[in-house]
Amino acid sequence: MLLVLIFWLMKPGSVTAELKIDADFEGGSVEVVSISDPDKTVIVKPALKKGRGFPCWWYFRIEGLETGQTYSVTVQSASEAYRESEILSSRWALPLQAALSFDDKEWFQTSVGEPGENSKTYQFEAKKERAWLAWGPPFLPATAEKLLEQAKEVLPDAELFELAETRQQRSVKGIRFGALESSNSKPFGIWVQARQHAWEAGGSWVGQGFLLWAVSDDPAAVALRSKAVVHFIPIMDVDSVVEGAGGKNAFPRDHNRDWDDNPVYPEVRAAQERIRYLDRQERFDLYIDLHNPGSSEQDVYFFGPDLQKVSPLQLRNYQRLQECAFGRIGKLREEYRFPSYVKDNEEYNRMSGTWVKNHTAEHVVAVTLETGWNRPEGTRQGYQQVGRELGLSISDYFSENPRRSLADSE
Fold first, then answer.
1. Rounded Cα distance, 143 and 161, in Å
2. 283: in domain
3. Distant-in-sequence contacts of 154-163, Cβ < 8 A, 24+ apart
4. How far apart are CA 55 and CA 88, in angstroms?
5. 264, 195 in Cβ contact below 8 A?
6. pLDDT in tens, 320-366
7. Structural domain includes residue 405
8. 29 with 74, same domain?
9. Residue 251: inside a domain, yes or no?
């Protein structure tokens, strides 16, 4: 009888492991509400990190799964105020589909979540004994480092650099590559950065698609490198990304509202200094900040100054970039958008794109590219495709000289 019992206990699946949830790793963030082993259900919510912006990002590991079984994960939105008396709307924390991985490397989407009251329930079949779930495919400083090294291997002449150390002594890294300056001409200057808002992981994946295209042997990429120098920063708000915080509307400042004469964040100050230096050297022409928009914005669009309030030269260049991109980037909106919701002129001038526009030469274009996340294309592959298409758009844009005068355009 004892041998029979031992044999039964050793049978695969005869002993149900206890479900456990953990987020104690880089970028991890979750608050566990409840776990039910018999029902194979868990309920969680984004961890509220006071002063660190939107409580919308969640990323955790669940262990003790039985392979072949279906599990339900309900994500509730944060119910506490994240600053003063402001409670974040649930739409920011509850994507249409969650990101799912069984090795924390390859990510794909769950089926569409079942909506509840300020919650959404995602189901998945366990392929292994552990799984990772997240608001979207995570892009971490370790991911950025591998990306930059990969680009350096493809293009050995590229320069890896540290933009700055954050307030918590973490490294903000970037890469520089492209044309060499000659006595006859000054190369165009391009600055592309992502993740001023930490939760907007899609921006970094768009950046990855752009970078891998830009260092490739695609003829358009080769042509771009022959005439321009590219600076690329995959993650600006490294501290919030590491800690699994949202970043947007953080205290004392949102990263994208820190662009004035006295920035709080060292990485913002360092970016300002480099951009100003390039502009003084007459080697700066294009600034692109990569973001994800609100949950209802499912397309891709450029965001920047009100084109009715720019000079004729600026209008020509902004419209030209839009025209080049419209022929390249899928689901790009025809209309150019500007921050009409910012009523305070002082705050408007602290936005990164506005600061760049106000502190560089008249011909410079400074925009945000917003890539919708709450859609089937909100995957690593979907984001990277937008990045490649952005690269082609930029190459098309620099087929003409944006520094030329209006008279030369006629």
1. 16
2. yes
3. 154/212, 154/215, 154/216, 155/215, 158/215, 163/233, 163/267, 163/270, 163/271, 163/274
4. 7
5. no
6. 999 999 989 999 998 888 877 777 888 889 999 999 999 999 999 99
7. yes
8. yes
9. yes
DSSP secondary structure letter of residue 352: H
- Six-digit token string for 157: 């002449």
Q: What is the CA radius of gyration of the chain?
A: 23
Give 177-181 contacts, CB < 8 A, sequence gap 24+: 177/151, 177/214, 177/215, 177/225, 177/229, 177/230, 178/224, 178/225, 178/228, 178/229, 178/230, 179/225, 179/226, 179/227, 179/228, 179/229, 181/283
Q: Are strands 70-76 and 41-45 parallel, antiparallel or unpaired?
A: parallel
Enter the tokens of residue 254. Answer: 């949102």
Q: Is 105 helix (H, G, I), strand (E, B) or coil?
A: coil
At 232, the amino acid letter reads F
Q: Do 130 and 97 reside in the same domain of the chain?
A: yes
pLDDT in tens, 218-241: 999 999 999 999 999 999 999 999
Cis peptide before 234 (omega within 30 of 0): no
Structural domains counted in the chain: 2
Domain housing 161:
141-409
Domain presence at residue 1: no
- Where do the H-state alpha helices sit in 73-200? 141-154
